[in-house]
């Protein structure tokens, strides 16, 4: 499964469009590039959400720029997840992408369920556990390891 | 399984004796369980229930804690509401995540139905007993309080909407007898706080300030939006002396948005 996804960046954006977490997995682009991409995608998400009548959490491909494709996901509490992948030769299946987002969502839920984490504060997430899980998601999305990060991955 | 810290999410991993069998004593299962509550899979609901007596004990401690730090009943209810809010905001995230085909709820009715069934089922093991829409009026809201206590008239000069979720025998206050001098108090303010958090999390604010066209000088911080007002009231009916109604007041902005969203 999801053999062809090469994750370059995973970003989490809070409900008031405050940055919560951003992680760069690529070696080719600087961090700043992904900060910029995350920023831009907020606008695209906002547009997407008002247009689509069915309130699905997965927003699909937001846009592509140069060799990068940006995918979005918005939870019911308006927390946005953004995954930047490098454009592959084969088509990326929505199901694979959904699965990936689901795992990020799982990591976020684990973070939120921590009673000491204040989800209303606008501070970025600094949890070690969270970044470890995100790290694994980013590095294993190429499909080498299964059964990591969420209950769905092994289902 | 070389990633020990994420292994907890694997449903195929052999779960240590999670369900309490009747044969083994409670002490036994405590030691064989092996995983702390914090390490349990978030997706597992079976066997993760807390006993009512444990909850009742904890809740009574919470009440005592709160009571020492407040002045008056309203203050106490506000405090309980705050406690509930902290539970609710996490509940919401978790329940929506557990739901396989989760949706972002945007309509009032669907989110209230979500509270009435999903939230209630997860908290109390059964859906709430009723969900009613009270009144919606432009100018003056005349509201019969379930025909039971009194006739209340609001004159706010703008549109409001009341919804009520009722529970015939609320679990939270089953073992609480409120003393006479606190007769106004309803401990379900805690539940009201949970409902408030769910509505708040789903963007049912009373004051929509996050429109992109609101001009804000950069120096002023954003005012925080007010969550929908949710309160708990005791409304006894025949056979159910402890029947509690969670009253949800939704304000103009939400109703306006509701109009826009109408298909």
From TrEMBL, chain A:
InterPro entries: Longin-like_dom_sf, Sedlin, TRAPPC2L. GO terms for cellular component: cytoplasm. It holds the Pfam family Sedlin_N. GO terms for biological process: endoplasmic reticulum to Golgi vesicle-mediated transport. It comes from the Eukaryota. Belongs to the TRAPP small subunits family. Sedlin subfamily. This is Trafficking protein particle complex subunit 2-like protein. It comes from Jimgerdemannia flammicorona.
From TrEMBL, chain B:
It is found in: Endoplasmic reticulum; Golgi apparatus, cis-Golgi network. Residues 8-39 are annotated as: Disordered. The keyword Endoplasmic reticulum applies. One of its GO terms (biological process) is endoplasmic reticulum to Golgi vesicle-mediated transport. InterPro entries: NO_sig/Golgi_transp_ligand-bd, TRAPP-I_su5, TRAPP_component. It comes from the Eukaryota. Keywords: Endoplasmic reticulum, ER-Golgi transport, Golgi apparatus, Transport. GO terms for cellular component: endoplasmic reticulum; TRAPPI protein complex; TRAPPII protein complex; TRAPPIII protein complex. Transmembrane segments: none annotated. The keyword Electron transport does not apply. Pfam families: TRAPP. PANTHER family: 41-2 PROTEIN ANTIGEN-RELATED, TRAFFICKING PROTEIN PARTICLE COMPLEX SUBUNIT 5. Belongs to the TRAPP small subunits family. BET3 subfamily. Part of the multisubunit TRAPP (transport protein particle) complex. This is Trafficking protein particle complex subunit. It comes from Jimgerdemannia flammicorona.
